[in-house]
């Protein structure tokens, strides 16, 4: 069962990285609603949370109605388990200069839900991905016994990748590559970069392979 914790401590917001991806659901006073992706700009503890104005036709249509709109905010924390952080609040205002952004009232309570069973370790291993007939080259930025994140230097089409089977070959400096199979569960595509979340097939990451990756992480940290 997934654990959900509820907190009134505004310091929980520090668990989000500035620039992190945000998913918002907005219900405007005119009754219309929309969901969109945004980016966290920052926050003033206990007062406001600032996010970029999403590029989304439904929200553009309702821009003049946004003030006072009800908002459900979701993002991923920078903790080792990459928990989901979520809260409900209201739009305080829309800011137009020096850039368009939405100012939200600081939440009164914040919930966190653990979505990963295994702790992930940050690293930078070169890797090759085989997705169907396509081959991609990227950098594995974190991993655990259950999955990994891979960064690629291009904006990819999520429709062609999401829920697709993938083989990941992890390049290591002093030992043979480690290959694991899994499924692409998340695609975060930006202007010049994409990040894939891969869930390994059950039992696919052996204890020996996991120990090898841990050891290589330590060696990279010393180099």
Automatic annotation (TrEMBL):
A single Pfam family, by name?
Answer: PilZ
How is this protein named in the record?
Pilus assembly protein PilZ
Annotated ranges, domain Type III secretion system flagellar brake protein YcgR PilZN: 18-107
**InterPro entries xref list:** PilZ_domain, Split_barrel_FMN-bd, T3SS_YcgR_PilZN
For this protein, the record's Gene3D superfamilies field holds: Electron Transport, Fmn-binding Protein, Chain A, predicted glycosyltransferase like domains
Q: Which residues form the PilZ domain?
A: 114-208
What Gene Ontology molecular function terms does this protein carry? Answer: cyclic-di-GMP binding
Q: Does the keyword Cell membrane apply?
A: no
Q: Give the signal peptide, or none.
A: none
Q: Which UniProt keywords apply?
A: Bacterial flagellum, c-di-GMP, Nucleotide-binding
